[in-house]
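Retro notes (design track)

What went well: tokenization of the new backbones is finally stable.
What didn't: we kept losing track of which sequence belonged to which structure.
Fix going forward: every design gets posted as structure first, then sequence, in one message. First example under the new rule, 215 residues:
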């Protein structure tokens, strides 16, 4: 096995630590590091690695949206989510987006190694600790009564919401997304109407709770 891997996380120390640990394993090579979701998408398109290890909470474009964009390229890249979020809704959305593996950042490195080997063999991997959460959610059907940002908002609305929550002004968001200021203002109104939230503070709390961004 000689697998090329991209590590995507907004914390430099985490990326460097993962690179060091992964490259200790024979046949695994970290060819690039991404600081946010947009860079992860760009680097994946450029290098077409066998695997991406992806954080969820990253600036500009979060990991879940990055996974969705990578999947539109119809490539064979496999994706493992390595996240601090243990909530069953994050796990479900990650797999819906197209991930093949999900484990927590506080997992032992041996678990990440097992996940990488499993996913590269074409199988799915789920941390045993998270599996219990999913089973509990299935038995209680809690997820059915808790609509999330991923079924309430469109992809573009989620992008705008994330940038708003991260403190970017309307003009900045318009420039990044290559849209007019008026269009961004329209998206903002749509988001507020759909979520029944009417202040930036409320939207920020919502975005953090839904995993679109973090503190």
């Amino acid at each position: 096995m000689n697998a090329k891997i991209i590590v995507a996380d907004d914390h430099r120390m985490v990326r460097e630590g993962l690179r060091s640990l992964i490259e200790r394993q024979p046949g695994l090579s970290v060819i690039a590091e991404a600081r946010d979701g947009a860079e992860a998408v760009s680097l994946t398109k450029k290098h077409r690695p066998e695997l991406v290890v992806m954080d969820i909470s990253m600036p500009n474009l979060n990991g879940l949206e990055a996974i969705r964009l990578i999947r539109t390229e119809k490539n064979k890249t496999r994706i493992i989510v390595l996240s601090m979020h243990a909530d069953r809704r994050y796990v479900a959305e990650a797999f819906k987006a197209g991930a093949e593996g999900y484990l927590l950042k506080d997992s032992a490195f041996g678990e990440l190694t097992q996940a990488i080997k499993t996913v590269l063999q074409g199988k799915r991997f789920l941390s045993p600790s998270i599996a219990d959460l999913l089973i509990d959610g299935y038995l209680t059907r809690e997820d059915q009564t808790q609509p999330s940002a991923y079924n309430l908002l469109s992809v573009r609305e989620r992008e705008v919401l994330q940038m708003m929550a991260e403190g970017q002004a309307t003009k900045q968001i318009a420039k990044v997304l290559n849209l007019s200021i008026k269009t961004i203002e329209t998206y903002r109104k749509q988001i507020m109407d759909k979520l029944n939230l009417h202040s930036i503070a409320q939207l920020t709390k919502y975005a953090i709770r839904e995993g679109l961004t973090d503190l």
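Added context from the reviewer: The mean pLDDT is 88.
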